[in-house]
Amino acid sequence: MKCNIYFLSMFLLANSINVCSKEITGKVFCGKKGLSDVVVTDGVNFTTTDSLGNYRIDTDTSLSDFVYVVTPSGYVASYSTGTPCFYKSVSAKKHDFELFEYSVPQGRYTMFAVGDTQPGNDTAYLRMENEALPDLRNYGKEYMDRSIPVAAILLGDLVWDNQETYGRFKDDLKTLGYPVYPVIGNHDHEEFFSDNKKSELVYKESFGPNYYAFNMGRDYYIVLDNIDYRGNRKYDERITSEQLQWVRKYIEYIPKGSHVFVAMHAPAYIYYIDKKLEGAEELMDILKDYNVSILTGHTHIHSNILLRSNVREHMVASIGGAWWLGNCKYAYDGTPMGYQVFESSPLGLQWHYKTLAMPRNYQIKVYPIGTFPNHVDELCVKVWNWDEGWKVEWKEDGKNKGEMKSFSSVDPDYTMYLSRSHADGTLKSKGTTPQANDYCFFSVKPSKGAKNIEVTVTDRFGNKYVESVEVK
Known about the structure:
Blueprint: H1 2-20, E1 21-30, E2 33-34, E3 39-41, E4 46-48, E5 54-60, E6 66-69, E7 75-77, E8 87-89, E9 97-101, E10 109-114, H2 122-144, E11 150-154, H3 166-174, E12 180-182, H4 196-199, H5 201-207, E13 212-216, E14 219-223, E15 227-231, E16 234-237, H6 241-250, E17 259-263, E18 269-270, E19 275-276, H7 280-286, E20 291-296, E21 303-308, E22 311-315, E23 338-345, E24 348-355, E25 365-367, E26 379-382, E27 391-396, E28 399-403, E29 405-409, H8 412-423, E30 437-444, E31 452-458, E32 464-470
Parallel strand pairs: 1-9, 10-11, 11-12, 14-17, 17-20, 20-22
Antiparallel strand pairs: 1-2, 1-5, 3-4, 3-6, 6-8, 7-9, 10-23, 13-14, 15-16, 18-19, 21-22, 23-24, 25-26, 26-30, 27-28, 27-31, 29-30, 31-32
């Protein structure tokens, strides 16, 4: 009897494995030509295409929702729906992928890293559509008019728990004229599900896999999902062991010494609360042989922090500032509404911050003496995209005086916006409490009788931003 039960159990187990196991075959092509050596994955396993563009992958459908390509440098999947469609459901009848030439393989391109679009209602959508999208569209056109390919990556919280507006959101993305890659954030999960996988279903239906990879120029992009959702807007921030294992397998296809972008929603490190992301150290260990730029959002606050000698995290402030508050133009740490721009070429990587409705060289703001509490007799400067490679120097009446001193402060622009808007009755919402910024403020005390102060800010790439003010 026990023997019969044993064989029955083995039979049922074998059949359950057969039900979940599926051999998927397909072709990756551009025009009529198959593309060789293209990486294909199901989120667990990997394979590559042969010389004719054909591939085969054994998939466990209980673990994998999609089969998708790692779009190779020089190509893009169709983005006619608003975001690139480089994936197919494991249940699809065919698993062929058509790619299109988009740039010079290993060549020059520009990437816009956009933090937390997060329109939560029609008013916020209108601000996004009237302020953010035109800037993204026009700035992209400036590059494309110079034959430089452009793409964007949205760093999570695409919307604000209103997933029923994904259609409108994707229609907005179509107007940009270039591919936009999504990252899932906490507000992109369905809040009514306490099961993480169920909470991602609507997102996946609209945008595809919650973690994936693609290549542009000489760079390798890895997109991860570091929100483990528990329902009712509660979640843990972590990189799961499944994704870490997937990254371990994927880097076998990336030459050591390459530059890798890792895009995810929650930061690896939040400096102002000294919080480290679970799994971030292991991720950086896995990528120890690469030059790594981590792109994150979530906090609506901006910083560019060196985490290891080979890893820098760009925590990008929200393009909507303080959650599209009233007509405020700032995040609650004082960063102006905008996005980080990465220019990649065979000569290397450079980046700058693009403030909405402002020219590229708008990188600093000089405040009159008496603007900052505890610095009332000092001239102060805000340098929102600062990192340790920048210099903030000054001259007094033409004489070099060296570097200005940094200090931590809340931002007067955001703070005074809240105060004045509450006082005049134009802002009914309380607004988020200002967050001190530890990196972007600098000050100097002019000598008695000084007439002119010239501030020169030099970024890590040698670009200079100069402002001269009369001392009154």
